[in-house]
Task: structure prediction
Amino acid sequence: MKKIKIAIAGVGNCASSLVQGLNFYSSHHEDAPGVAYKDVGGYRLEHIQVVAAFDIDQRKVGKSLEEAIFAQPNCTAVFCKNLKPFGVTVKMSPILDGVAAHMRSYPQENRFIVSQQKPVNIAEELKLSKADILLCYLPVGSEEAVKHYARACLQARIAMVNCVPVFIASNPQIAKEFKDKQVPIVGDDIKSQFGATILHRSLVRLMSDRGIKIDRTYQLNTGGNTDFLNMLEQSRLKSKKVSKTESVQSQLDERLDPQNIHIGPSDYVPWQKDNKICFLRIEACGFGNVPMNIEARLSVEDSPNSAGVVIDAIRAAKLALDRKIGGPLGAVCSLLMKSPPHQMRDTEAKAAFEKFIQEESAPLPASKDRFLGDTAHDHSY
Result:
């Protein structure tokens, strides 16, 4: 099989986990945990090759990729320290709205330090790198910056995997542009392999399937990485809260009143670093309207938890390129993303994803065919 050439926008903790994983799994094949699909249409993890990377931090820009992923403020687990050279130098990205102003008041080891280098032309760099796919790992709230990268993908005609809660694949106007140009897109907002959202979705779906009526629920999260620091600015949280809340609401037969559901990041705890702690509560009623409740606490290393899902998105996007399929990949988005164009039950999405691997397309249930963009956000581009 040919290599899958990827470019990375945002060399943060998630990129660090992915890049470490590319090295780790090159020497740990069948016996290694954490990979749901060892083979996706003939593509394995070892076929993925990083050919370009972009960031704005002076401790990363101009450095080799294998050096930059361990630079501050990155703080995720190091599980593969000795990396083979990728031959990739991190280049300066346009900043746009990628850096929250409030970060300046925090210690340098916890926040971004903006490089003074001149930003490169992203579309031109993508063409020069001959990348097949761009991974977008920009900070939450970077609306203009993410859209800038989406336009660059369209210009360079390379696929996009949008790992952040900025609505691109689930925006009908932008989705149409990707489809018209036969450019695949997978988005929006990557799920973790086993994180707060998938746990919450599974529990509310299970309770509903067992005839339990859910009255109210919350999900509170704390963490100490730059993502949580960035989200202290409430104005940057809007799309994240929509993404996480809609992901859970979509699993309910009867949607909860907004007053009875609260899902979203809660606070920044620096010493937690990349460890994310979720506190979850569901209040419900069973037979005879007798009340019950469930509380759960989940502790996970945030960035490795998403990397295993990203490699499936990368390989699915490459299959779409091979098959000349453009626009949002419905089954792929529904399984791997919190805010896909079409929400599905996870079991249905898994079956549709596996059908996509075997065939050129996978149908979506008519009852779940709904663009989030129609109600959740505007369509400005």
Notes: Residues 196-302 form a domain with the Dihydrodipicolinate Reductase; domain 2 fold (CATH 3.30.360.10). The chain is about 35% helix and 20% strand. The radius of gyration is 20 Å.
